[in-house]
Design goal:
The structure is a homodimer. By secondary structure, the first copy, chain A, is of the alpha+beta class. Chain A folds into two domains: 2-120, Protein Yojf, Chain: A; 133-244, Trna Endonuclease, Chain: A, domain 1, CATH 3.40.1350. Chain A is built from six helices and 14 strands. In chain A, the strands form two sheets. In chain A, strands 1, 2, 3, 4, 5, 6, 7 and 8 form an eight-stranded antiparallel beta sheet that branches. The longest helix of chain A is centred in the C-terminal third of the chain and has 17 residues, at 189-205. Chain A is elongated, with a radius of gyration of 26 Å. Mean pLDDT of chain A is 93; it is low at 249-255. At the A-B interface, β1, β2, β3, β8 and β9 of A face β1, β2, β3, β8 and β9 of B. Chain B binds a DNA duplex through β5 and α4.
DNA sequence: CTCTTAATATCGGAC
DNA sequence: GTCCGATGTTAAGAG
């Protein structure tokens, strides 16, 4: 690892540090007054102001304002980043990122560069994640009777239908088919829609088929929509974030 | 504007620069070897490695690896960021971000800080965006006959129904009601679902009601779903990104 | 390549 | 505060 930092660099230095850095696999951060232009799926213009610009060797370009989680403008990984120092030292260096599919570009005019930093970062470990929907699927599959209802049996996981993929195809104690859609967070109207799409398909041939939306919680509107369409909401309290967490965070609290 | 940078700072300096900086409205960037722990809506652990950590005064915390558009871990704006220098200079300073609703936290153990930078950024201008769905709505509303079909008339925009908001409620040349759902990008199965949700509602009382999904393009599966449900796809080629852009980017190209 | 779905989605607007 | 829908969503996984 090394970090090399250049304060108030001229255009040629900016171009060199960014160009060499990205080519050699470093992350380059720039603190600068800049102007940004974007065109592609949408389009936009951001007038002059102070921003943090991050360039990654995979082609990622991020322009961050002093507030907000999301960059105001960006280019996802896979883009080509070029830097043009301009014709004279008076010119603002230009960062230009481009990609195809979709065809779009981003231009960052670096009008006043306060600082450029080259970070030769080594980061090889894998991120370990807990609490995905896949985990919830495993939980249901391992013990469907306690997760969903007595007597239920999973017939198929991720079944492909004419209209998309459903999470579980099951059978209840009476042998009636059950379509199960699982959400790890509060289920929304769109999730109800998704389940209904599969239901409409199966009900054509068998009006008895049941539909279950499984989630830690949902809104009243969704519950009514389910009821009106003879479908069911199954609450999986074990996966409710608010409930689950309160206890854990108390133990590990910090002040 | 000012940028102040500290190379290889000790724990006390890290704590001071981050604490003072955030309190006084600056953006603080840290290049460091660190370890990250997250728990909340999901949970995760990221072992030691070199990352760029960005702290914003609104409570945003971002941990960026050397590749990828999205931060590997983060806390959205509104969180409280604290920094603990540890008990001795040997200890790793700890960045701790927390928020409620949902209740979650992020811990960044800064095991080896290569550089800390405080950026007192001034950024007041507004971002100007083009090509939003709202623009597409205006386009349709201003001339529904050329956008959708001859004789059609918009009755209501953003009508609230029992199951949500629909984009346009219209009437065709014969006076038949038309439910219109607009997407500025390629329409997906979920968008079909959304339209169908409204359709089901209106068809109960009037089986003649028509449904239109308006978008620059869509997949065959969506087209079939629409056909099977007696709904229509209206292609708005004017908003097709791939088509529109080819010409523009040629003019403004850069190499 | 496209299509389909998940995501710690985030964000903003309406109520 | 909750709910609802747009987003330049991005990213992963299957075909």
């Amino acid at each position: 690892m090394t970090v090399e930092r250049f304060a108030a660099p001229d255009a040629a230095t900016v171009a060199r540090v960014v160009g060499d850095g990205l080519r050699e696999g470093a992350v380059v951060s720039i603190e600068a007054e800049c102007e940004v232009e974007y065109d592609g799926r949408s389009g936009g213009y951001l007038g002059p102001g102070d921003r943090l610009v991050v360039c990654k060797p995979d082609g990622t370009l991020l322009v961050h304002r002093p507030s907000g989680h999301k960059p105001v403008n960006w280019m996802p990984g896979g883009a080509t980043i070029k830097v043009d120092p301009g014709e004279s030292d008076e010119d603002a260096p230009l960062l230009y990122a481009r990609r195809s599919n979709p065809n779009e570009f981003l231009r960052v005019y670096l009008q006043d560069v306060y600082s450029v930093s080259r970070f030769d970062a080594t980061d090889a470990v894998e991120y370990q994640e807990r609490g995905t929907e896949a985990e919830m699927h495993e939980y249901i599959e391992s013990d469907p009777e306690s997760a969903l209802e007595a007597g239920i049996r999973i017939v198929e996981h991720e079944r492909e239908t004419q209209y998309g993929y459903l999470d579980f195809f099951a059978q209840d104690a009476d042998g009636t088919p059950v379509v199960v859609e699982v959400k790890r967070r509060q289920a929304t109207l769109n999730h109800f829609d998704q389940l209904k799409r599969y239901m409409d398909l199966y009900r054509e041939s068998n009006p008895e088929v049941r539909g279950m939306l499984v989630a830690p919680s949902t809104s009243d509107r969704v519950k009514r929509a389910l009821r009106d369409n003879d479908m069911e909401f199954v609450r999986l309290a074990e996966f409710d974030v608010e409930t689950r967490e309160a206890s854990e965070t108390t133990l590990t609290d910090f002040s």
